[in-house]
């Protein structure tokens, strides 16, 4: 009988994180959700029940991440999968971004991924197996206005993905990333509907002619951490309906 795999998904209670969590749970993966909001964790618990573990934790407290990972291993056993999904956004013209604001976005979207991946990799190396998946963004490819800090962080995430893959893949740990395109949510749908010019631009350069669904990101994440992707490492997979190659 195949052992049930255990995954960690940061920010797994809302948006793309929730879609990834649901996809994992439906595939029989026990999923540990790390989130900053007790309210969001309670809502997830009412939906997923004992198919998930629920950890209230502020990932910005980098010095506490080693103890967190130790406690997760003690509580849940072998850690097989890590999805670094949690992040924050800042929409502001570059000239108006303060050093503190820039530092905060880098800390959450870049430094947290490094620290958590490092500590989980220490555990995975003992078993010579594991899969780490980072969530990147089209901001790492395009020059998008008003997201300078987010762009810097996500570009770094893709670089770290390749560097981690080179160091850790010989030890049995695959490291990849996915870069979602324009994915539908109530918020994104409303934003585009209120800005017809931007909406037209999005759809005109997306060959598939539509926005993606969160479930499609979940499916891509499941593939990338599964044995079906056993010879893929250091890759960044666009899940964008062709937007990144659209003309």
TrEMBL record:
<comment type="similarity">
    <text>Belongs to the short-chain dehydrogenases/reductases (SDR) family.</text>
</comment>
<dbReference type="Pfam" id="PF13561">
    <property type="entry name" value="adh_short_C2"/>
</dbReference>
<protein>
    <submittedName>
        <fullName>NAD(P)-dependent dehydrogenase (Short-subunit alcohol dehydrogenase family)</fullName>
    </submittedName>
</protein>
<dbReference type="InterPro" id="IPR036291">
    <property type="entry name" value="NAD(P)-bd_dom_sf"/>
</dbReference>
<dbReference type="InterPro" id="IPR002347">
    <property type="entry name" value="SDR_fam"/>
</dbReference>
<dbReference type="InterPro" id="IPR020904">
    <property type="entry name" value="Sc_DH/Rdtase_CS"/>
</dbReference>
<keyword id="KW-0560">Oxidoreductase</keyword>
<dbReference type="GO" id="GO:0016616">
    <property type="term" value="F:oxidoreductase activity, acting on the CH-OH group of donors, NAD or NADP as acceptor"/>
</dbReference>
């Amino acid at each position: 009988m195949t052992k049930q795999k255990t995954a960690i998904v940061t920010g797994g209670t809302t948006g793309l994180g929730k879609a990834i969590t649901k996809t994992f749970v439906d595939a029989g993966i026990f999923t540990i959700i790390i989130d900053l909001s007790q309210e969001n964790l309670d809502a997830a618990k009412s939906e997923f029940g004992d198919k998930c573990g629920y950890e209230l934790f502020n990932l910005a407290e980098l010095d506490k991440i080693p103890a967190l990972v130790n406690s997760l291993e003690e509580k849940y056993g072998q850690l097989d999968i890590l999805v670094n999904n949690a992040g924050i956004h800042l929409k502001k013209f570059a000239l108006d971004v303060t050093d503190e604001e820039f530092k905060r976005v880098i800390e959450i979207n870049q430094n947290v991924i490094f620290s958590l991946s490092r500590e989980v990799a220490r555990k995975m190396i003992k078993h010579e197996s594991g899969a780490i998946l980072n969530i990147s963004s089209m901001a790492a490819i395009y020059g998008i206005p008003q997201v300078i800090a987010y762009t810097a962080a996500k570009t770094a995430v893709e670089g770290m993905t390749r560097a981690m893959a080179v160091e850790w893949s010989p030890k049995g740990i695959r490291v990849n990333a996915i870069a979602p395109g324009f994915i539908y949510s109530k918020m994104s749908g409303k934003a585009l509907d209120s800005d017809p010019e931007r909406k037209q631009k999005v759809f005109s350069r997306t060959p598939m002619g539509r926005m993606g669904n969160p479930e499609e990101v979940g499916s891509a994440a499941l593939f990338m951490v599964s044995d079906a992707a056993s010879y893929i490492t250091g890759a960044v997979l666009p899940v964008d309906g062709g937007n990144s190659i659209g003309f």
